[in-house]
Structures are given as C-alpha cells and as structure tokens.
Amino acid sequence: MKKKIALSLIFLLLIITATGCNKNSNLVANTINTLTSDKYAGRAIGSEGNKLTETYIVDKLTSLKIDTYKESYLHSFEGSSYIPKDQSVTMKIVLNNGKDVKELTYGDDFLVNSATNLNAEYSLSSSITNEKNKISLLKSISEILNPNIGNIAIVKQDALSNGVLTEEKNKIVIFVNEEVYSLCENNLDAKIKVDFSFKKSTIAMNNIIGKIPGKDSSNAIVISSHLDHVGSIGNNIWRGALDNASGVASTLYIAQYLKENFEAPQYDIVFYIFQWRRDIPFRQ
User: Of 13, 109, 210, 227, which sits with the fewest C-beta atoms within 10 Å of its C-beta?
Assistant: First the structure.
C-alpha cells in the first residue's frame, strides 16, 4: 500500500510539472515576494511576521476552497524560544585606555551563538589562547575546533547570518562583521566588554492543515513545508526565500492545481504547513 501511495504521489507531481508550470504561476511569485518582504521580517516564531504568515496561508487556503482538517486550518501548540526583541545583548570595544568606546549593535555588528548569560571584560589575543579573561580573534569558524581555545572567541563573518538562539553552549562564539574585526585586530590593547542577558519565552503558534478529500480516506498523501524562518535582528532581515518561502509557495500552488484539476483524487491529499514542531498532529 505504501508503495502504491508513493507511486501515486510521484505521478501526481509529474503531471503538475508537465502541465502546470506556467498556469497560475503568479501564486508562487506573489507568495515568495510577500513572505520575504520587510513586513514579514523573517517569520521567526513568536514574531508579528510569523503571525502574518499564518494569516496569509489560511487566507490562501480559504480562497482556494481547500477543506479544513477537522474543524479548522489552525492547529495550535506551544513551544519555547528566545525571541530576538526580548533579549538584552550588548558589546563594547574600549579603546585608548578607556578614552574611546565603540558600542556595537546586536544584529548589525555582531551575533552570538549561545544563549549564555554573561557579564565580563576581556583582553584581545591575536593568537589562540585559553587564558582566563582573554578572547581569541579568529578569522575562520573552523579554528574554533582547536582544543586550545578557551570558552569564548570572536570570529570574523563577512555576512552575519542566522541569529536564532536555541540553547546554552559550552563555547561562546561572537560573530562580528569585517569592520569590527579589523577594529579589534588593529587595537589589540583594547578591552571587550559584553553583557548578555537572555530570556526564553513560551510561544503560542499554529501548524496549518488543509485537505482535499479523496475516494479512499483510509490513507492520505501528505504534502508539507515549514513556514517559519530565523527572523530579524537590528537592521538585518534573514528573509528565507529558499528556507522556506519557496516551499510554502509550492505547497499552495500544488493545492491550487489539484483543486482545479482533480474532482476526487484516489486518496485524501493533506497540505501540512508547519512551524518548527515537526510531529504531525494527525498521525493517529
């Protein structure tokens, strides 16, 4: 039976690819453009952009006349995460024996990899060190694997990416842009002051499920994609065109195509657009 369903799905996708590439392609383009826009701000869970994404998808499923799963498209659950706007993360470079202070902007100038609370001052080291109260300057993330590095390091990153925090880590990595790295590299007598205070929040969110009823409802073909991305910090927005606005757009396009071209498929076709929680709520 599983093999039969898999073959049906492959055949279904081949038909869509062969005959539907140009028809109603505006849905794909419009969805990607909308979900990657400034207004949606990277769609991080717990954000206004994430809620807007839920609303956008529900509105599209409604307009396509896709059936709800049970009594609703929305299937709620709670999770916990570090919402970027709720964190207090500061970093300063103290120059010229305290005469000048360069205050850095979280998200624009630097990011951290660990939700570790920390209030400390460090001296800079151009070489790898594990000395207490010293911080190594690294040009590549691969250097962090060196066993002689202490529990904190600064790493140059040409384009700051992915500010999502998930946990405390044994080794704290501060990613800085090229300008900040050069400032540190040229002022090795400077001090680095950090004050990181992180708070995890409980977040209510929704997975979104719709379906096209089939002749045989004892089995289903599930077409899925995830709607969330990593959000925004400072002036940086990580838009997530490939991860995964394009996946949501494709799911909606397939839903549209099947609704318009198949009066009753052999099996139920379920469209499951989920948040970071992957366990399917209708598994039973």
Answer: 13
Local confidence band at 160 (pLDDT 50, 70, 90 cut-offs)? confident
Do 65 and 101 share a domain, yes or no? no
List of residues 6+ apart from 109 with CB closer than 8 A:
91, 176, 177, 179, 180, 234
> Are 143 and 229 found together in one domain?
no
Residues 193, 218 within the same domain: no
Give the pTM.
0.85
**Position 284 in a domain:** no
Do residue 207 and residue 187 come from a single domain?
A: no
**What range does the domain containing 162 cover?**
88-197
| Cis amide bond preceding 244, omega within 30 | yes
